[in-house]
Every structure is written in structure tokens, then in C-alpha cells.
Amino acid sequence: MVTLRDALAAAVGHHQAGRLDEARPLYHSILRSQPGHPDALHLLGVLESQTGRLGAALPLLRRAVALLPGDADFLGNLARTLRAAGQPDEAERAFARTATLDPADVQAAFTLGSLRLERGDAAGAATAFAQALARRPDFAEARINRANALAALGRAEDAARLRRQAVALAPAHPDALHNAAVSALADAGLDRPLSHARRLDPELVERAGRALTHALVADPRHGAAADALTGAALSLVQAGQAPERLLDRAARTALTVLRRNPRDTRAAAVVAYRFYRRGRTDLASRFMRRFARRFTAAEVAADFELRLWSMVRAGRRALDGLPDADALLSAFPPLELLAEPPAGNGPLLAVSCDDGYYRRFATGLLDSVEAQAGSVAVHVHVVNPSPETLADLARRRERLPLGTSREEVDFTGWDDHRRTTYYACIRFLRWHQLMTLWGRPLLHLDADCTLAGGLDALATLLDGADVGLLRDARWRGPTREITVCFAAFQPTPRGRAFLASTAAYIGAFLREGRGFWMLDQAAPFAVLDALERRGEGPGVRWFDVLDFPWVRFIGEK
């Protein structure tokens, strides 16, 4: 006669051998004979959980635990099934009891820590991971996750130390490498806003790039490492601190990311910036135009990189089909000349702003011009000037060789972004009009700056050039390379053509409602690129944005 003990032994044998369909009826036969048999309930529950029948497994495991509440194995299997069934609250409580009943159960403590970390309980997670590490010091994943918990608690140094230990324990573990890279990037300063005045430690940046590359070699589908690499590369490009090697690595990773997620805008931007760095902005702009077809106009407007690249048309044919600048003027309010500057052929300092910027900044710029004994002629154009602004300009005409103009724009229904974009960009159409009207050199300056000295030496340097441009040589992208806080336009044929094309480029985008912030810097870059590729480029006198002694710029440019 077959006893329950014999039947259980046979069921367990089938179960351990993977013959689940043969084990299941034996467990059921035992439970028909003894419905409260704890081992049969537990093992049948485990079997049902293994086959994905979580709804059938949970009642069995709960009954087994109720019969033997002090059995850590029963409780641990219930906890794992609860987690698989998407019941994290009950699973956490069950894992906590399991870890208390059997402190040697490293996996229970680790899973408890993971659940707590997922739920935002960093302190509880750190304690659970510490318990796992006390029993198994070489447990690299527990060390990694404890580091993440400590980082969330603000204990950055302890987290960095654990991450270094994890890499030493498991030098090929992708999670360990990813976490070590995150620590290195934070140590380098990438977790804080970047500027050219705050340089990162290039050795730490390189170390982080290597660690992320190795993590992706170990696991090409490691999403967190891929995101960290592309995100770091993008931030470094924008700050002008991206090493060539890191950008190359990130671009290769970005192509893999795009195969998995064809709408990952950060990955696409990294690829485009790599093309740009190689001198192929034409390829970059075509790539981003094709990529942008996957998005609605509203989605493009909402995404920072899609907005920037939507304004870049580079390559020999970038200006094909561009309307004539003069033909575009009818789409905008008329330029109203209030007072012409004194006649002459010398350079004219050209400043354009809205009424608010005039009162906040342009008065300081004009004060600095007066401090230079008023030797330079100035023209100020104001959008929607107030009576107070017009009165101030009239008073200044008594002391300065000053011309003024205005335009009146109805901004009803415009958001702040569209309005500020208009202020920044419309000036180039106005400079084209004034160049046509007066035919004299224009030295364009942002309103929010002041003169640091006389401009005679600057004017001398511009002799023989068609255009004077300010360059940011840190390869920050086609919308940042030419910084138009200063630009000079000479009344030569190629100087006029460059200004007219830049005005037309900007005007076309504004007219179509597709202009965004930094259009005023995308336009001269794209125009210069197209003209040079066609052999029609102007003679440019380049100046360095970080070393331009004639002007004090307010804020970072």
C-alpha cells in the first residue's frame, strides 16, 4: 500500500526532474486524502507559481504558511509569488518576515531591499541590503543597490565607495559599471549646471565613459547605461566639454538605442551632434528632419533638441527656395523711422529690443556709449516702445549721434516663448532694411551688454572683411557656434548678400510660425554654411566669444 510519505516522495521526484504534469496529480491526490497537508500545499503552490498560474498558487501558499507560520521556506515562496502577482505591499511584508525568520536567507534580504528601493524607502532598503551583505560580502548587486539607496539618502561618498567596491568584485558586471560611471560623472560635476567657467575633470569624464562602454559591452541592452552615456554626451556637448572619443562612443550607442526606440530624441540628437563635429552639418540636419517626421508639430515644439534642429538647414541647397528678404517684409509690421542718425559712412552701432529690455539693459549700454565721448553713431530700434522710452531716446539724442525706429506689434494670443523669439530675431530683418537704406557698416550688439572701450580698433580689424562674427569654438552645435550678441555687416556685395539671406532665413521661419528661441543663431550658421559650400561665402573676420575685449556681455554667452 502506497503511503502519503511515498506519494509525496514520488511527487517531489517528478517535480525536481521537471516532470510537472506528473507531479501535479500526485500533490492533488495527497491533498484529497489530507487537505491540510502543509508540504503538499506548499509544493503544489510552488509548482503552480512556476507554471505561471499565480491565481492558483497564492491560495495554496497562504494555506501552507497559515499552517506553519514559522517556516521561512514557505514564507519566502509566498513572498516571491506575491511579488510576481503584482502585490508589492503584501510581498514586502512577507519578505520582511522571511528575513527575520532566516537571517541567512541572503536573497530574501536582497529582494526586500529592492522592493523598498522601488517604493522610495531608501533607509529601509539600505538596511535590507546591509543584511544581505553581512551574510555574503561578495554580493555585487547588493552592494550596487545599497549604494543607490545611500545616494538617495544624500550619502554620496559612501555610495561612491560601495560602487568602486562593486566594480572590484565584479569588473564585468554591467550594473556595477553603470553605477561606478554615475558616481564618476557626479564627482566630475555633471550633476550640476555646467558653464564654460566651470570646467569638468576630464579624467573623471573619460573614466565614466569607459565604464559605461564596458557596461554596454557586457550587456548591450542595458538601458540605464545607454541612457547615461547618451545623456552625459548631450550635456557635455551643450556645455562645450564633450571629448571626441566619448561622443563617438555615445553616437554608436545612440544608433542601437534608436533601433529599440525610434522616438528617442536624445539619442537622435547625439547622432546629429557627431555629424556636426565631423563637419557634416548637412547630414546632421537631414538626419534630424527625417527623424522629426515621427512627431507632431506640437511634439517638436515641446522638445528642446527637436526645436533646435528644426531650425537648421545646412548644406549647399539649404537656401534653395528661400524667399527674397524684401518680399517677406510685408508679412511683418512696418519699420517706422523716428530719427535718422547723423549722415556719414562710418560704422553704425545697431541695437534692437522690446520696451522692457530697453529699460532694463539698453539704457546701460547707451550710458557706456556716452562714456566713450559719444564718438560712435548709434541706431536703436524698439518693439512697442512706451512713451517713457521714446522720451528717454529723445533726451539722449541731445548727447549722442543717435537714430531711432520702432514697430508696433499686436502680441495678443502669443505665448512668452513666441514673443521673446520675435524680439530676438526681427532685428535682422530691420538691419537688412537699414543697410539697404543707408549703405553703411552695421555693428550689431545685444541690448544686454556694455562697451568696454572705444571701437576704433575693432573697426580697423573689420577692414577688408565682408562680415564680422563671434564664434564659440567649443563645438556646442549649429545653433550655438555663431553667437549673435555681436555681429558686423559691411556694405560690400557679399556682406549685403549674407545679411539679406540671414534676414530671409529668419523671416521665412517667423512667417510660417516655426521659429523658436535661438533661430537668430541658427540662421547665420546655416546661411554661411550654404554660401561657403556654393563658393559664394563672404570674407569673415572671426572673433572669440570668450575673448572679446571690446564688449562686456551680461551672463554667459
Automatic annotation (TrEMBL):
SUPFAM superfamilies: TPR-like (SSF48452). The keyword Coiled coil does not apply. The keyword Hydrolase does not apply. PROSITE patterns: TPR. TPR repeats lie at residues 38-71, 72-105, 106-139. Keywords: TPR repeat. This is Tetratricopeptide repeat protein. It comes from Azospirillum himalayense.
